[in-house]
């Protein structure tokens, strides 16, 4: 016998403990375990293969021969439990799932119940098959979700929860595995109502019994077996956290209990808007009464915050962390000048990508690498380069009276050695109110070179201006020394240089010296297919402002990062 797909028919053994349930057509007894085989369950459903298993039994992919072999899902109740109470509980939960699906299945993003019956020694539930990937699989294949994808997820799932909760049903097990992105229309489908309960007519739980998934389930579920709409919303927040960070909440719960939700932001791989952060923080609040109480409340906040933009610039998803590791290299001449006397002509000036950062007045001139009088030849520049850096500062007439200061809702502000969040790249921290000297901004991060050098999240700083509109002058730090909470010990050693004779520095320039020109300029210190923003010919003079891990940051003739072993210092004798 052949199926419609011209593949040989295999008969699947329904013994939930069978290790090799697939059998050739025509076999009467399972080759592996000896159990009698059923060709068509209830004379209608042909079991194709197991697709999942758990404490309550197995789940199979099947075909409905009454519907031209349409695919469906068959769940088999075969609880791996001991004792009459546990068996009764499992049976009641299985019946509940069928009842909830029948009640909720009219929603287009919840699977439809087709049948519920007993055959032999087992109970079976047949439901709609959703072709697609669950979000845990999507996370594994595509990497962490951007803020935009998280907002789309919330807009997609919250109306489902509105419908579920309006019918007095609590799902109790929301997590990435139970959310499928349907292949046909890319909409999200909420599955697995196996532990769902009615908000009023509950199945009595035995003392000490918890239902839900550790890490995702709210504290009231774990401690008392209680569940409310706010409990599902907590699980939704934990799901968003997992997809944003790639960190399973279960791993944090194992070591920290529920305390991890108090500083969940520290695990972010890239900054997100304050608006989304506030929503997730409220979803993840330990105290049920302080969480959102309904999906409607979340949607209201989500919709009201669509128009306002983040404080610094629109949130842009950072690329995945680089898999390349470059040795720390010597810092190029000119960077020390930044530390000893360079000041900049206002924030709006440094944001112009085609202007050099100007050297401010200093009593003791500092040597630095500068451009030659001949304009450099730029081989190519990406069209979007001029739009790649934005700022909060809009009124240049007030620049001289403005400073950029730390404004972190959860101080101190972490300073990192690259524009990303990683466990090993925190090089210091700064208190609120500390004045910063900003030299660049990209993809939600701001680079500073005072009071310490590094990168900070752009939505954790603000501009403070006096009302005076005196003529523009260089933006510098205040006369009061800023308070540095902590600095990594290696920071002071991070400013070495190729040039050993400082007396010659003023007569030296840094130029492109690539054995395979032109030299690629990248938007971040890593090699990726999509971060090449331009290229420079050999001999082009560069203005260097920073160096880190085998890369050099330049701000002239264009802004970006170049490989430090593709440039050289040329000095007049």
Automatic annotation (TrEMBL):
ATP binds at residue 75. One of its GO terms (molecular function) is ATP binding. It is an enzyme of class 2 (transferase). NCBIfam families: 4Cys_prefix_kin (NF045510). PANTHER family: SERINE/THREONINE PROTEIN KINASE, SERINE_THREONINE KINASE LIKE DOMAIN CONTAINING 1. It comes from the Bacteria. InterPro entries: Kinase-like_dom_sf (IPR011009), Prot_kinase_dom (IPR000719), Protein_kinase_ATP_BS (IPR017441), SH3-like_bac-type (IPR003646). The lineage of its organism: Bacteria, Bacillati, Cyanobacteriota, Cyanophyceae, Gomontiellales. Residues 359-375 have a biased composition (Polar residues). Residues 45-312 form the Protein kinase domain. It catalyses: L-threonyl-[protein] + ATP = O-phospho-L-threonyl-[protein] + ADP + H(+); L-seryl-[protein] + ATP = O-phospho-L-seryl-[protein] + ADP + H(+). This is non-specific serine/threonine protein kinase. The chain crosses the membrane at residues 329-351. Its EC number is 2.7.11.1. It holds the Pfam family SH3_3. The keyword Transmembrane applies. Residues 358-380, 403-429 are annotated as: Disordered. Keywords: ATP-binding, Kinase, Membrane, Nucleotide-binding, Serine/threonine-protein kinase, Transferase, Transmembrane, Transmembrane helix.
């Amino acid at each position: 016998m052949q199926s419609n797909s011209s593949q040989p028919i295999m008969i699947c053994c329904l013994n939930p403990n069978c290790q090799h349930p697939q059998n050739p057509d025509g076999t009467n007894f399972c080759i592996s375990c000896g159990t009698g085989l059923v060709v068509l369950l209830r004379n209608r459903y042909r079991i194709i293969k197991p697709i999942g298993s758990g404490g309550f039994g197995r789940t199979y992919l099947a075909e409905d021969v009454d519907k031209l072999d349409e695919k469906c899902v068959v769940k088999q109740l075969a609880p791996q439990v001991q004792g009459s109470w546990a068996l009764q509980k499992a049976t009641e939960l299985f019946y509940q799932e069928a009842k909830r699906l029948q009640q909720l299945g009219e929603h287009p993003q919840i699977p439809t119940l087709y049948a519920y019956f007993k055959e032999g020694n087992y109970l079976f539930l047949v439901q709609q098959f959703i072709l697609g990937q669950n979000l845990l699989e999507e996370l594994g294949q595509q990497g962490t979700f951007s803020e935009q994808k998280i907002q789309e997820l919330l807009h997609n799932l919250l109306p489902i929860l509105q419908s579920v909760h309006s019918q007095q049903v609590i799902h109790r097990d929301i997590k990435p595995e139970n959310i499928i992105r349907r292949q046909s229309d890319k909409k999200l489908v909420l599955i697995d109502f196996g532990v769902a309960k009615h908000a009023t007519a509950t199945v009595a739980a035995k003392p000490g019994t918890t239902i839900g998934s550790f890490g995702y389930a709210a504290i009231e579920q774990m401690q008392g077996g209680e569940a409310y709409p706010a409990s599902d919303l907590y699980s939704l927040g934990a799901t968003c956290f997992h997809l944003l960070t790639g960190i399973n909440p279960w791993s944090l719960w194992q070591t920290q209990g529920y305390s991890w939700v108090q500083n969940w932001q520290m695990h972010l791989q890239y900054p997100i808007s304050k608006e989304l952060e506030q929503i997730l923080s409220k979803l993840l609040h330990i105290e049920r009464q302080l969480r959102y109480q309904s999906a409607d409340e979340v949607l209201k906040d989500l919709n009201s915050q669509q128009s306002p933009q983040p404080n610094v610039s629109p949130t842009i998803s950072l690329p995945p962390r680089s898999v390349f590791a470059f040795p720390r290299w010597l810092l190029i001449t000119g960077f020390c000048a930044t530390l000893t006397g360079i000041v900049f002509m206002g924030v709006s000036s440094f944001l112009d990508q085609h202007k050099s950062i100007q050297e401010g007045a200093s009593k003791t001139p500092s040597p630095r690498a500068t451009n030659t009088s001949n304009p450099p030849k730029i081989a190519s520049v990406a069209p979007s380069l001029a739009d790649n850096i934005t700022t909060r500062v809009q009124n240049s007439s007030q620049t001289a009276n403005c400073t950029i200061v730390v404004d972190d809702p959860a101080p101190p502000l972490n300073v990192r050695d690259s524009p990303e969040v990683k466990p090993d790249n925190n090089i210091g921290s700064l208190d609120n109110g500390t004045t910063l000297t900003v030299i660049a901004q990209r993809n939600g991060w701001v680079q500073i070179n005072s009071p310490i050098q590094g990168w900070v999240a752009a939505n954790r700083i603000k501009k403070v201006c006096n009302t005076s509109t005196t003529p523009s002058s260089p933006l510098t730090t205040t006369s009061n020394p800023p308070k540095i909470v902590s600095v990594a010990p290696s920071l002071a050693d991070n400013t070495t240089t190729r040039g050993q004779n400082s007396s010659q520095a003023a007569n030296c320039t840094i130029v492109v010296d690539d054995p395979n020109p032109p030299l690629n300029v990248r938007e971040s210190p890593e090699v990726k297919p999509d971060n090449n923003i331009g290229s420079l010919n050999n001999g082009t003079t560069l203005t260097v402002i920073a160096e880190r891990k085998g890369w050099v940051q330049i701000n002239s003739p264009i802004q970006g990062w170049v490989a430090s072993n593709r440039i050289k210092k040329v000095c007049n004798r």
